[in-house]
Amino acid sequence: MTSRSTARYTGMAMVLHWAIAILIAINLILVWFADKWPQDWVRPAIDTHKSIGITVLGLAIMRLLWRATHPAPPLPDDYPRWERKAAHAAHIALYVLIFAIPLSGWLHDSAWKDGPTHPMKLFWLAPWPRIPQIAHLPAVPKEHFHDLLFAVHKALAYVLYALFGLHVAAALKHQWIDREPELQRMLPGKHP
Ligand code: HEM
Question: Where exactly are the structural domains of the chain?
Answer without folding.
Answer: 11-186
